[in-house]
Design a protein that fits this description.
Elements lengths: L11 H9 L10 E4 L4 E3 L13 E4 L2 H6 L3 E2 L13 H4 L3 H10 L2 H14 L3 H12 L3 H19 L4 H7 L5 H12 L3 H9 L10 E7 L6 H10 L6 E4 L2 E8 L2 E10 L2 E8 L5 H12 L5 H9 L5 H6 L11 H10 L5 H15 L2 E6 L2 E3 L4 H11 L4 H15 L11 H9 L6 H12 L10 H10 L13 H14 L2
Helix pairs in contact: 4-5, 4-7, 7-9, 7-10, 8-9, 15-18, 15-20, 16-17, 17-18, 19-20, 21-22
Length: 486
């Protein structure tokens, strides 16, 4: 183990209080490394609280692993919600973490991630090591270990297939990492999992429980997903949401249901290398890494918002699964009803969307690629010619690489890039930025429905600084206030 110490931005007393009270709200926000045992835990670990002189607090699991600590088998510290800091902050470290969680290092290497962010590999490594206690390779290694554990415990895939699906470059690297991180061999980990009933699914399918910080009121997410569902791409039935997935190595489908404390998730993947990106994108879609207690405490202090917050505790800001789909669907839906937008989008999907290899009932196609919309959009899309041309031109800009829709963008750069495109105004730029980057502080104050919600609550949207940095959540509360009172 290294002689690492608690970084100054993690207040030791505050962290120790969270550990002493076993506060699960802080799971994923920091990790407890115990010098005397060489183990690291989540704050809510049920084991005896160590003496304060024997522990340090670290910002990431990767920092703990890099320091020579192994994961606690009792609390599984890698299986926690992600840190909300990656969304509330927009610095280089946070933007890099979003890309690393999506598997960018495994697909293109550290150099590719650095280039995407506009920095050199050396600069990126230095900043991540200083801020997060581990460089990009160590952070990616921690994600690979987590993915491997999921595949070992939930599928019957051969270990060699799991090693390469998780992103390891050799069987030896895979075996060494599992032993170092979890203090057991892959085969023993599977033997332990086999003792649990119904632990395994077949190759290509994985059943997971995705944890989140409570509270989470599912009513808003349920309404949002069901109201925007597009036939062939998505279905909604009795609290269960299913849809197709376009992923880096292939396609897939997922079925979700929000349960107390977790989201029950059934994933079918054409290529198991896409497990980690799929999980990352699903968590982003449902805003599962948010800190709802912090959000509700801040907004609930406003007397005019207090009733809305109390009626929907833990409201979430829906993210997205694919930036191209988000932008083009937003443009299709401009100035028309949700039902009309679904009809227009379904027509586009039926004409240009590719069939998926892992269909779900009612989910049979992917949303079309930008290249397909650019080439054939004029033949399929209907409505005002100006709007159709704008959609096709934006699709062409995405296909040509002139517009980059990824989670590593800064909001200023992304918004400016979007506003430079014909047919995209401030509302569309803000809405897409909010959902693509999971930015928690965007107030959609030009939205008609949101303004109706503000009027019901007697809010002056010009006086919005007091809600920072949670104005995206205010947008959700105002939308819901208007919609439930219609």
């Amino acid at each position: 183990m290294t002689t690492a110490t608690t970084p100054p931005y993690l207040d030791f007393e505050r962290c120790f209080h969270a550990v002493s009270s076993r506060d699960s709200r802080f799971d994923g926000q920091f990790f407890t490394a115990v010098r005397t045992t060489g183990i690291y835990c989540r704050p809510s670990c049920p084991a005896r609280v160590p003496n304060p002189e024997n522990i340090i607090f670290l910002p990431t699991a990767a920092a703990a692993q890099h320091g020579g600590y192994r994961a606690c088998l009792r609390c599984a510290p890698d299986a926690v919600p992600g840190s909300p800091l990656w969304n509330t902050r927009s610095d280089l470290a946070s933007r890099a973490m979003r890309l690393i969680a999506d598997g960018a290092v495994e697909r293109g290497g550290v150099g590719s991630v650095a280039e995407t962010l506009g920095y050199s590999t050396r600069q990126l490594t230095r900043v991540l090591t200083d801020e997060l206690g581990a460089g990009p390779l160590a952070l990616a290694r921690a994600h690979r270990a987590h993915t491997a554990r999921l595949l070992i415990q939930t599928t019957r895939m051969p270990m060699s297939d799991i090693a390469f699906a998780a992103g390891f470059t050799s069987i030896r690297q895979f075996n060494d990492t599992i032993r170092e991180v979890f203090a057991m061999t892959p085969s023993r980990m599977r033997d332990d999992a086999e003792r649990r009933p119904n632990a395994f699914s077949t190759k290509g399918t994985v059943t997971l429980r995705l944890p989140y910080r409570t509270p989470l009121n599912p009513s808003w997410i349920d309404w949002f997903l069901s109201a925007h569902a597009v036939p062939s791409v998505e279905t909604w039935s009795d609290g269960s949401y299913a849809r197709s997935l376009r992923l880096p190595h292939g396609n897939g489908s997922v079925s979700l249901r929000i349960e107390p404390g977790f989201v029950s998730t059934d994933l079918s993947l054409a290529d198991m290398r896409d497990l980690a990106p799929a999980v990352s994108r699903i968590r982003h879609l449902l805003d599962l890494d948010a800190d709802p207690v912090a959000v509700d405490a801040a907004l609930g202090d406003d007397p005019q918002l207090a009733a809305a917050v109390a009626s929907t505790p833990g409201i979430r800001v829906p993210g997205n699964l694919d930036g191209t789909e988000l932008l083009l669907r937003t443009m299709i839906g401009q100035q028309i009803s949700l039902a009309a937008a679904a009809t227009h989008t379904a027509r586009l999907v039926d004409a240009l969307g590719e069939p998926i290899d892992t269909p779900h009932e009612g989910v049979t196609r992917l949303f079309p690629t930008a290249a397909a919309v650019a080439e054939h959009g004029h033949d399929v899309l209907t409505g005002p010619a100006r709007r159709v041309t704008a959609i096709v031109d934006v699709a062409r800009a995405i296909a040509d690489g002139d517009v980059n829709l990824h989670a590593g963008r800064t909001i200023g750069d992304l918004r400016a890039e979007l506003l430079a495109l014909r047919g995209i105004g401030p509302w569309t730029a803000d809405y897409v930025s909010m959902r693509l980057l999971a930015d928690p502080d965007i107030l959609l104050d030009t939205d008609l429905v949101l303004r109706q919600g503000a009027q019901r609550l007697g809010l002056d949207l010009r006086d919005c600084d007091r809600w920072a940095p949670w104005r995206s959540y205010v947008s959700m509360h105002l939308w819901r206030t208007a919609l439930v009172n219609r």
